[in-house]
Amino acid sequence: MELIQQLVNGISLGSIYALIALGYTMVYGIVRLINFAHGDVFMVGAFVGFYAVTSLDLGFFPALLLAMIACALLGVFIERIAYKPLRNATRIAALITAIGVSLLIEYGTIYVRGAQPEAYPSTLLPAKSIEIFGVTISSQALLILCTSIVLMILLQLIVHKTKIGKAMRAVSYDAEAARLMGINVDNTISATFAIGSALAGAAGVIFGVYYIKIEPLMGIIPGLKAFIAAVLGGIGIIPGAMVGGLVLGVIESLVSGLGYSLWRDGVAFIVLILILIFRPSGLFGKNVKEKV
Amino acid sequence: MTAFKRINGFWLSIVLALVFFAVVQLLISGGMLNSFYINTLFFMAINIILAVSLHLIIGITGQFSIGHAGFLAVGAYASAIMTMKLQMPFALALLVGGVAAAVAGLLIGIPTLRLKGDYLAIATLGFGEIVRIILLNVEYVGGASGMTVTHLTTWPWVFFCLLMTIIVIANFTNSTHGRACISIREDEIAADSMGINTTYYKVTAFVIGSFFAGIAGGLYAHNFYIIQPTNFGFLKSFDILIFVVLGGLGSMSGAVIAAILLTVVSTFLQDYPETRMIIYSIVLILVMLYRPKGLLGTQELTSFFRLRRAVGGKQNDNKHTVA
Amino acid sequence: MLKVESIDVFYGNIQALKGVSLEVQKGEIVTLIGANGAGKSTLLKTISGLLKPKHGDILYEGQSIAGKAAQMIVKQGISHVPEGRRIFANMTVEENLELGAFLRKDKDGIRQDFEKVYHLFPRLHERRKQLAGTLSGGEQQMLAMGRALMARPRLLLLDEPSMGLAPLLVKTIFRIIEEINSFGTTILLVEQNAKMALSVAHRAYVIESGRVVLSGSAEELTASEQVKKAYLGGH
Amino acid sequence: MTTNTPLLKADNVGIHFGGLKALSGVNIELNAGELVGLIGPNGAGKTTFFNLLTGVYEPTEGSIVLGNDKLNGLAPYQITRKGISRTFQNIRLFGELSVLDNVKVAYHSLARHSIFSSIFRLPSHFSGEKEIEEKAIEFLKIFKLESFMYEKAKNLPYGQQRRLEIARALAAHPKLLLLDEPAAGMNPQETQELMNLIAFIRERFHLTILLIEHDMPLVMGVCERIYVLDHGQLIAHGTPEEIRNNPKVIEAYLGEEIS
């Protein structure tokens, strides 16, 4: 029973990782950039949600939507200001810029509102628990899980059924050929940032509701974990990010369940290094060799 | 141009360095520098060691490692164990700190240096985090509350280690071995096809860089009264990275200058950590956007003087001896 | 219809095209032949907006299109089938064709064109739900051409449609090129397969190290010894 | 000219990537001192073959033997030390290094001084570095590049970069030199200079050369024998005259007429 309980916790945590990982993977797929600032977009989403709930008295779903919109705008802004000028620069320059943007968002937030943490009101969602076969699942956890799943399905629909989704896939596969189709590559890249960031914003609100405490540096560790999830699933591959997120969440919960909760973060990084060494293309990826 | 002249230039630099050392030592023992300045000076030197050691890995060999604080931590804890738990002399502790970090560098370098670019960066970042988490969980070194350490770091030690670091890394760089590393940075496939054993040199540069980061760790640990795993998070790694990037990837003097400048800036902004980070990050972004090669690019400070001398006759030979 | 006026194009420091001029009249098939690396693909890429000429101008139906963004040029009615096909292998055949019509809003017209393309290439209809990456080389070439046709171009740029295909398939492809042309689409065809290209073209240009060295009607060039020389370097 | 054992023997060599066969059943023999061309249409597998010879890829079938050494499975740097060096289709110089240092890198494998002696500036470091420098300067003089010696390689004009890349490849003391489209992007005058250079280095270094080139006059003009690849397979082999009149080659290049 304990095991199943941990499994449920793991899936909840994993679905948050998955939501963040989707943004990493989509952005990487289209511009081959590890957007280090993505974890901080997640943090901003958590705060936007928090203020929407506390100051504007909005309910869960309106707050979620607001956070998603705010983060989408933030994502596009970051892309246009910091990354677009670097599209032909070296990968290292782009990576360092991303680190810079990440630090700027973190400490900019602290500068503006201070470093003190906030707590999401626990009354935001009805707190009932459901017991199934001896496993307690809070209705919150259930709602959060459902929200994540709905968002992921929505994303799949966008990517596969809409014009912009097809454009995104085309650009990430072959940007030059996409231009020959009449696709505006710049706009498509911005759209990718917008969608990925909106998902991170949603993850931020969900995280707040689930784990209560939020603070300006909260994005770092989940951001890194989500990145690991993306690598685990095969970076650039959307279903890979979802599976990677869930797998990582479950692994962490099991490690905690076995009584090694202090090693949880370490295990995630060990997974990362093992994956990079033995299967750098991830669970779902294909190996590509450099052209000479 | 001749070997004789180069040896001469080398000794000249050594003499200048020793004069600098003696002056500072006199100021310290004469009580003319207060502890704030002394401390800043120590920090500066430790940061220069870190910057130069990472410069060898990133700037010279082109291997994008962003987990350097991990080696700093290994060195710090290994040397602290030597002095605090085993009652060994400080000199031995520093050496053990360096060796422990070098071994860690070897262990992590052999498997991960096959990775390229972003992947290597992430793997090294992960390594740094793993080191921190291990330290956090090992009771022998105090877990989260850390280890108390005696203050043993003195100006002669700091200076000697700094000098060694610069001499070793500059001399390595200015040899056929350093050229092999640079050729890997410039084009790994071409280097391979020129008969360079690229894996060997990548790992070698990584191990040398880790060794000096470990030495810096020993100095760092014994400059405090306590060390904790939180001192070695990836923000620390980014700090070191910023020295190298701002100075100019591939320029040792650039890394040194950046380390000096940024140490001064952070000392002044000590009480405003957010402001410091905001300034850091904005500078980092602007430099990448407008001067992606950093302050000096791959040039060395010495080459600018040489250029001036070269006017009217001899060519600039672009050599950077110890300066 | 298309007029290229002494354009110079550079890749970094290397000049790939040196004062190239050529003309395509409405309804024609014009072919551009020459050895590997002569600059043929570069010219097509410059026309379709993937590269910008440093000097010179490109006029399409009287308007300058030199240096315009690729999507604007597609909008004006020029489609480019790139060398190596460059289909989106991770998408289905149908999705690839939909992307060809990316800029169009006329749903009925698009549906008609789907019919047309499937009629022209029945194979594609059979495999419309399959991932494009699983198609054979010849089918991928058909898909690339069909995809370009979905934009309903007035001018079609074809880059080496015969590359890497078995002789029988090459014949099929060329028959289809003639068929497309007979519907009124003007074609600028780049080919290494000179004999084949000349057999379907009205006029031809021979390009050698970034310069047009010869031009004329297809018959004239078929008879020319110089063409063979351009390829095999005889004396 | 020909000796009994060939310098290089590629026996039934092939490679596939995933399901895709890039090359198969390639048999090529090179005798010491020959200058041989390798031609074929785009995508025929010429550069892939070079990558197999130099260890960038490992062949999935067949064997490659240089002299008495089997090359399969060796790392690129080991193959270079056995005596094969190459230039690249898209020039791969060490751009930030000086012209002199580019050549010095090629002399690296001759260096006998250890990292230790360099770090502590022992006498062997100075003698070793001096030897490398003298040899490299000597070498640049042969190639008339000494006036650019201290210039960064990336600042050289294109033609000189090609020249430097060939010089660098030769500085690694190959028995067999592989040139991958050396005339790409050159004007006729530069191409002429290149042909002279190739003739010169052959004479001077007693080299065996395998040349990939699209510039047919160049290939036909300088090569003694030519191999033709198409669709990853050898379709012809012979003297330039034979190749020029070989119907299969003409078909591969000019294509077949519509009937």
Automatic annotation (TrEMBL), chain A:
<keyword id="KW-0472">Membrane</keyword>
<dbReference type="GO" id="GO:0042941">
    <property type="term" value="P:D-alanine transmembrane transport"/>
</dbReference>
<protein>
    <submittedName>
        <fullName>Amino acid/amide ABC transporter membrane protein 1 (HAAT family)</fullName>
    </submittedName>
</protein>
<dbReference type="GO" id="GO:0015190">
    <property type="term" value="F:L-leucine transmembrane transporter activity"/>
</dbReference>
<dbReference type="GO" id="GO:0005304">
    <property type="term" value="F:L-valine transmembrane transporter activity"/>
</dbReference>
<keyword id="KW-0812">Transmembrane</keyword>
<feature type="transmembrane region" description="Helical">
    <location>
        <begin position="132"/>
        <end position="159"/>
    </location>
</feature>
<dbReference type="GO" id="GO:0015188">
    <property type="term" value="F:L-isoleucine transmembrane transporter activity"/>
</dbReference>
<dbReference type="GO" id="GO:0005886">
    <property type="term" value="C:plasma membrane"/>
</dbReference>
<feature type="transmembrane region" description="Helical">
    <location>
        <begin position="224"/>
        <end position="250"/>
    </location>
</feature>
<keyword id="KW-0029">Amino-acid transport</keyword>
<keyword id="KW-0997">Cell inner membrane</keyword>
TrEMBL record, chain B:
<feature type="transmembrane region" description="Helical">
    <location>
        <begin position="117"/>
        <end position="135"/>
    </location>
</feature>
<keyword id="KW-1133">Transmembrane helix</keyword>
<dbReference type="InterPro" id="IPR001851">
    <property type="entry name" value="ABC_transp_permease"/>
</dbReference>
<feature type="transmembrane region" description="Helical">
    <location>
        <begin position="36"/>
        <end position="58"/>
    </location>
</feature>
<feature type="transmembrane region" description="Helical">
    <location>
        <begin position="155"/>
        <end position="173"/>
    </location>
</feature>
<feature type="transmembrane region" description="Helical">
    <location>
        <begin position="65"/>
        <end position="84"/>
    </location>
</feature>
<dbReference type="GO" id="GO:0005886">
    <property type="term" value="C:plasma membrane"/>
</dbReference>
<keyword id="KW-1003">Cell membrane</keyword>
<keyword id="KW-0812">Transmembrane</keyword>
<feature type="transmembrane region" description="Helical">
    <location>
        <begin position="200"/>
        <end position="220"/>
    </location>
</feature>
<feature type="transmembrane region" description="Helical">
    <location>
        <begin position="90"/>
        <end position="110"/>
    </location>
</feature>
<feature type="transmembrane region" description="Helical">
    <location>
        <begin position="9"/>
        <end position="30"/>
    </location>
</feature>
Automatic annotation (TrEMBL), chain C:
<keyword id="KW-0067">ATP-binding</keyword>
<dbReference type="InterPro" id="IPR003593">
    <property type="entry name" value="AAA+_ATPase"/>
</dbReference>
<keyword id="KW-0813">Transport</keyword>
<dbReference type="InterPro" id="IPR017871">
    <property type="entry name" value="ABC_transporter-like_CS"/>
</dbReference>
<dbReference type="Pfam" id="PF00005">
    <property type="entry name" value="ABC_tran"/>
</dbReference>
<dbReference type="GO" id="GO:0005524">
    <property type="term" value="F:ATP binding"/>
</dbReference>
<dbReference type="InterPro" id="IPR027417">
    <property type="entry name" value="P-loop_NTPase"/>
</dbReference>
<feature type="domain" description="ABC transporter">
    <location>
        <begin position="2"/>
        <end position="234"/>
    </location>
</feature>
<dbReference type="InterPro" id="IPR052156">
    <property type="entry name" value="BCAA_Transport_ATP-bd_LivF"/>
</dbReference>
<protein>
    <submittedName>
        <fullName>Amino acid/amide ABC transporter ATP-binding protein 2 (HAAT family)</fullName>
    </submittedName>
</protein>
<dbReference type="InterPro" id="IPR003439">
    <property type="entry name" value="ABC_transporter-like_ATP-bd"/>
</dbReference>
<dbReference type="GO" id="GO:0016887">
    <property type="term" value="F:ATP hydrolysis activity"/>
</dbReference>
Automatic annotation (TrEMBL), chain D:
<keyword id="KW-0547">Nucleotide-binding</keyword>
<protein>
    <submittedName>
        <fullName>Amino acid/amide ABC transporter ATP-binding protein 1 (HAAT family)</fullName>
    </submittedName>
</protein>
<dbReference type="InterPro" id="IPR003439">
    <property type="entry name" value="ABC_transporter-like_ATP-bd"/>
</dbReference>
<dbReference type="GO" id="GO:0015188">
    <property type="term" value="F:L-isoleucine transmembrane transporter activity"/>
</dbReference>
<dbReference type="Pfam" id="PF12399">
    <property type="entry name" value="BCA_ABC_TP_C"/>
</dbReference>
<feature type="domain" description="ABC transporter">
    <location>
        <begin position="8"/>
        <end position="256"/>
    </location>
</feature>
<dbReference type="GO" id="GO:0016887">
    <property type="term" value="F:ATP hydrolysis activity"/>
</dbReference>
<dbReference type="GO" id="GO:0005304">
    <property type="term" value="F:L-valine transmembrane transporter activity"/>
</dbReference>
<dbReference type="GO" id="GO:0015808">
    <property type="term" value="P:L-alanine transport"/>
</dbReference>
<dbReference type="Pfam" id="PF00005">
    <property type="entry name" value="ABC_tran"/>
</dbReference>
<dbReference type="GO" id="GO:0005524">
    <property type="term" value="F:ATP binding"/>
</dbReference>
<dbReference type="GO" id="GO:0015192">
    <property type="term" value="F:L-phenylalanine transmembrane transporter activity"/>
</dbReference>
